[in-house]
Aryl-alcohol dehydrogenase-like predicted oxidoreductase (Nonomuraea fuscirosea), 369 residues
Amino acid sequence: MSMDRYYLLGRSGLRVSPLALGTMNFGTGGYHAAYGKTEEEARPIFRRYLEAGGNLIDTADFYTAGESETILGRLIAEAGVRDRVVLTTKYTNSVDPGDPNAGGNGRKHLIRAVEASLRRLRTDHIDLFLLHTWDRITPVEEVLRTFDDLVRAGKIRHAGLSDVPSWYAARAQTYAEAHALEPMVSLQLPYSLVDREIEREHVPMGQALGLGVTAWSPLAGGFLTGKYRPTGQGLAGPGRLSGETPEWSEREWGILAAVESVAGKLGVPMAQVALNWVATQPGIASAIVGAGSAAQLDANLAALDFELPAELRAELDQASAEPPRSLYRMFTGGYQSLLVSPGVKVGDKPDGYSPAVRNWVEAEHSATS
Ligand SMILES: NC(=O)c1ccc[n+]([C@@H]2O[C@H](COP(=O)([O-])OP(=O)(O)OC[C@H]3O[C@@H](n4cnc5c(N)ncnc54)[C@H](OP(=O)(O)O)[C@@H]3O)[C@@H](O)[C@H]2O)c1
C-alpha cells in the first residue's frame, strides 16, 4: 500500500487515497481554535499532501467556525486542483444558537448547510457529503430523501454518515436500497489502537453494506506518537493534548509501550506504526491524518512505505484487544463453534466468484482446535 495507489470507497466508483488529509485544525476560530493553524501555516501541509499524491480531503462546516472550509476553498483554488481532489465536508452542528432549525440533521438545516459549505469552499459541488453526528431526532427517511435530491441536483456527488450508531446506518442503507435512493458510500468513525469499539458492529456492517470506513483520530489526537507522558497534572508533552486528563488507564499506556516496541524493531517512528496498523485493518478505506506541520505530515505519509510483519501486528493486536463481553461473546469462538459442526468447512468462495463473506467459522475452529 502506498500513496500512489487509490482504492474504491465503499460500493462506489470513487477512488480515494489510503491516507486522507484532516483539516479540523485549519483556521483559528471556534471550537478547535486552541490548536488551529493560520492559512500560512496550513498551506504547506495542504501542498505537501497533494505533492505526495493524496486526493481525499476532509473538513466540516463546524471546524474552526467555518474557517477550515474557507481556507480550504482558497487553497484548492490557488493550487488549481478542484477536479483532482475528493472534497468531503459534513453538517449537523448548529450555526446559530438562537435558531432551532440551524442545527441537527433535518432537511431545512441540511440544505442550508450544503449551500453555505459550497460558498465557503468556492465550488459548485461537494464530492462526499456526510451527516456529522446523529441528532437522535430526525427520521432517517428525511435525511436520505434530501441526500438523494442533492445528488440529483448536482450539489453533492456521494453521501455518507459519520458518528452514528450502527443500527442507524444499517437502517439508512437498507432504506436507500429498498426505495432506490442514493446509497451511502462511507462511514467516518473514530478508530485507532486505543479505540477499537467500531470493530464490533460498524466495520462488519460497512463491509456487508458497501460503506467504506474512514478512520478519524488514528493517532488518538497525537497520543500514539509517544510524545506525551502522564503527570499528576494530566498529560505532558509538546502538543494539543498537553495538560489534558483523558480517561486512560494501564491499558492505553500498555498499548503505547507495544507501539514503541514495534517501532523500535522496525526502526520507524511510533506514529507510522500506529497509522500503518489503522490503514491496513479490514474494512478501513482510509485513515484521516491530522498534522500540525508539513514535517509531521511528511513523517505520517511514510507510514505506508513498509509492511507490518504478521508477528508485530499480532503484538499490537494483543496489546489493544478488548475482549468481547456479554452479548458479543456469543459471536466468538466458544459459542460459535456450537453452531456448525467442526467437520463442516464453511468459508469464502474463490475470488471473482462472489463477494467475499467472512470466514469466521473456519477461523474460529482453527483457533480453538
Ligand atoms: N467525524 C468526526 O467526528 C471527527 C472527529 C475528529 C476528527 N475528525 C477528522 O479527522 C481528522 C484527524 O483527526 P485528528 O487530528 O484527531 O487525528 P490524529 O491523527 O489522531 O491526530 C493528529 C494530531 O497528532 C499530532 N501529530 C500528528 N502527526 C504527528 C507526528 N508525526 N509527530 C508528532 N505529532 C504528530 C498533531 O497534533 P499537535 O499539533 O498537537 O502536535 C496532529 O494534529 C480531523 O482533521 C478531521 O478531519 C473527524
